[in-house]
């Protein structure tokens, strides 16, 4: 018999994780992207490389290091200790930290590209019109980079939804806490619950298709500077 | 320029990339000062340093305000300088409407409100952009965009307007469309303008003061007219050498549709009705349109034939070139306006033309290049900091 509550729980968890991760990524990723786009520091490409690492690292490798970091003997454990816990591994908070690192390049890269695309000129114009750098950032740079933010947010969200390896390594399979969609599907297949697996997998298929389609349409529309 | 008069003092030295710059000049705090020279002579760099967009060591004072002085480690950031800057490309913000573009600087400047601020409606009317306000910048023509950019710079209530070849990116037709607006600005605006150009015709139409630049150095600086008739300067060697002088409308001859204008040392007749008596006009006399005679010519089609005295003669191209440049002062004593004529060395010797000789200057054509009148717009208060 189909248990809808059991099916819904990983979906809700996944959406929560992806939403929180996306917001965190926009907050953390924007200054990083700005710095990477504007800085003349020689070592900035080294920083860019670190940000891009999750693109090529096997999720298990990243997951392994995250497990060590978040575990009771790492900084994550110390952080958890402040809140009365023992470890950040196998918690929802741990998943958020892992997802932020894992999805970082998908958010930072499009925003950085967008910041680089409009060049120095609009910023110089704003400066000659009495706008301070902080003012210029909000009134000129962010609106001009809007397509980059859209792409980054959509990619960051979707990539987090599709996460599997890292989650399995640092989150395990705790229902309602760390059992997200991709893990749930894996679970259902393992236990031969094909109907449930079909529903979730089919849903993911539709979701992925809509995300990519939305993005392509958005990009086409944003290609013309919007007004 | 009197020592006590308010002025702009500019001195920058240093290297930008592989280019070395070492300039120093003064500009008056009224009228248009043109930075003129070939591409790559450093004029844009000077302008960017004045705006604070680039930094070279040096000093910049505008009126009694110090904007940069490395001796006291003073450097005001671009957004702390009351400037307007017009770039070669209009560079409007594509995410804002024309109106919001125009108000971008105005809103930020209004915090330090000026009593006699340049009014939005006046500027919009002066630049002829009132019908464009709700449009998107991308929906404008090149000329319209540049006019909006000029308006945007003006509405930030600058005390100094910096213009970096605002017409260079435009085609000839569009240039002709914008020049009258710039001339109107020139006449109605009480703030100084520093105008970078490599096009002598723009300079002739707009500039009062000229700073000649070459290879990152100042070759000469002074009133446009003085530099144009200076035998030592490269301006005279240009194929299109000319002088720009000011004339006042005296009377209009209805029978022949001719206007007589008074210039220093004489009167000139030009075709057409050139406005009411008393109006000031800027006249351009090309060196190739001026010839000289020793006696007053009796039967000639040339209307303008004025007594003059030769002030100097220099070879055009050096050595035994075929042509010479003759600088003559109008009037029998030669104290009037200076004009330049280009004649052959052969004629010069045949007529025994030497410095100090009495001659008659025949001016085949006089071009009116700008009206020198118009209602004055208010300028922002002078700094009171």
TrEMBL record, chain A:
Its main location: membrane. It is found in: Cell inner membrane; Cell membrane. One of its GO terms (molecular function) is molybdate ion transmembrane transporter activity. The keyword Ligase does not apply. It holds the Pfam family BPD_transp_1. It comes from the Bacteria. It is a multi-pass membrane protein. InterPro entries: MetI-like, MetI-like_sf, ModB_ABC. Keywords: Cell inner membrane, Cell membrane, Membrane, Molybdenum, Transmembrane, Transmembrane helix, Transport. CDD domains: TM_PBP2. Signal peptide: none annotated. One of its GO terms (cellular component) is plasma membrane. The chain crosses the membrane at residues 17-37, 46-68, 88-108, 153-174, 197-218. Residues 11-217 form the ABC transmembrane type-1 domain. Belongs to the binding-protein-dependent transport system permease family. CysTW subfamily. Part of the binding-protein-dependent transport system for molybdenum; probably responsible for the translocation of the substrate across the membrane. This is Molybdenum transport system permease.
TrEMBL record, chain B:
GO terms for molecular function: ATP binding. Transmembrane segments: none annotated. Residues 5-240 form the ABC transporter domain. Belongs to the ABC transporter superfamily. This is Molybdate transport system ATP-binding protein. The lineage of its organism: Bacteria, Pseudomonadati, Pseudomonadota, Alphaproteobacteria, Hyphomicrobiales. Residues 299-372 form the Mop domain. PROSITE patterns: ABC_TRANSPORTER_1 (PS00211), ABC_TRANSPORTER_2 (PS50893), MOP (PS51866). Keywords: ATP-binding, Cell inner membrane, Cell membrane, Membrane, Molybdenum, Nucleotide-binding, Translocase, Transport. SUPFAM superfamilies: MOP-like, P-loop containing nucleoside triphosphate hydrolases.
């Amino acid at each position: 018999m189909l248990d809808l509550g059991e099916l819904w729980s990983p979906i809700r968890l996944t959406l929560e994780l992806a939403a929180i991760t996306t917001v965190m990524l926009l907050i953390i990723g924007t200054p990083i992207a700005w710095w990477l786009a504007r800085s003349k520091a020689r070592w900035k490409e080294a920083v860019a490389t670190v940000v891009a690492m999750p693109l090529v690292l096997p999720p298990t490798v990243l997951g392994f290091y995250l497990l060590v970091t978040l575990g009771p003997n790492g900084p994550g454990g110390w952080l958890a200790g402040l809140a009365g816990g023992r470890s950040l591994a196998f918690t929802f908070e741990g998943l958020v930290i892992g997802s932020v690192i894992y999805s970082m390049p998908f958010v930072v890269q499009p925003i950085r590209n967008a910041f680089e695309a409009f060049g120095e000129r609009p910023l110089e114009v704003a400066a000659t019109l009495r706008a301070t750098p902080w003012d210029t950032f909000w009134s000129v740079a962010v609106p001009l980079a809007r397509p980059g933010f859209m792409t980054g947010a959509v990619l960051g969200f979707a990539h987090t939804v599709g996460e599997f390896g890292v989650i399995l390594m640092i989150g395990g399979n705790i229902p309602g806490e760390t059992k997200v969609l991709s893990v749930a599907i894996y679970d259902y297949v393992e236990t031969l619950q094909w109907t449930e697996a079909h529903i979730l997998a089919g849903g993911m298929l539709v979701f992925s298709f809509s995300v990519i389609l939305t993005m392509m349409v958005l990009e086409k529309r944003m290609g013309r500077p919007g007004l | 320029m009197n020592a006590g008069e308010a002025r702009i003092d500019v001195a920058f030295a240093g290297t930008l990339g592989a280019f070395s710059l070492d300039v120093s000049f003064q500009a008056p705090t009224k009228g248009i000062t043109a930075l003129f020279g070939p591409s790559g002579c450093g004029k844009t760099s000077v302008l960017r340093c004045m705006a604070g967009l680039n930094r070279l060591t040096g000093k910049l004072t505008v009126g009694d305000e110090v904007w940069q002085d490395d001796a006291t480690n003073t450097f005001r950031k671009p957004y702390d300088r009351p400037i307007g800057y017009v770039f070669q490309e209009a560079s409007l913000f594509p995410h804002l409407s024309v109106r919001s573009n125009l108000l971008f600087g105005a809103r930020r400047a209004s915090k330090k409100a000026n009593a006699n601020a340049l009014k939005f409606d006046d500027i919009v009317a002066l630049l002829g952009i009132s019908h464009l306000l709700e449009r998107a910048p991308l929906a404008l023509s090149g000329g319209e965009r540049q006019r909006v950019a000029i308006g945007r710079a003006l509405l930030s209530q600058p005390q100094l307007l910096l213009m970096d070849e605002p017409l260079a990116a435009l085609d000839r037709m569009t240039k002709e469309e914008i020049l009258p607006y710039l001339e109107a600005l020139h006449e109605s605006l009480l703030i100084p303008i520093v105008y970078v150009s490599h096009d002598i015709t723009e300079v002739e139409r707009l500039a009062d003061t000229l700073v000649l630049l070459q290879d990152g150095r100042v070759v000469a600086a002074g009133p446009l007219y003085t530099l144009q008739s200076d035998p030592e300067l490269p301006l005279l060697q240009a194929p299109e050498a000319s002088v720009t002088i000011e004339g006042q409308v005296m009377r209009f001859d209805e029978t022949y549709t001719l206007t007589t204008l008074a210039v220093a040392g004489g009167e000139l007749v030009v075709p057409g009705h050139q406005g009411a008596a008393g109006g000031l006009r800027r006249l351009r006399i090309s060196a190739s349109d001026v010839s000289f005679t020793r006696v007053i010519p009796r039967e000639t089609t040339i209307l303008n034939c004025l007594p003059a005295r030769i002030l100097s003669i220099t070879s055009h191209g050096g050595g035994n070139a075929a042509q010479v440049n003759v600088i003559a002062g109008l009037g029998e004593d030669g104290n009037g306006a200076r004009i330049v004529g280009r004649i052959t060395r052969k004629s010069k010797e045949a007529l025994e033309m030497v410095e100090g000789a009495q001659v008659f200057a025949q001016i085949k054509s006089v071009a009116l290049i700008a009206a020198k009148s118009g209602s004055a717009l208010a300028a922002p208060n002078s700094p009171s900091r």
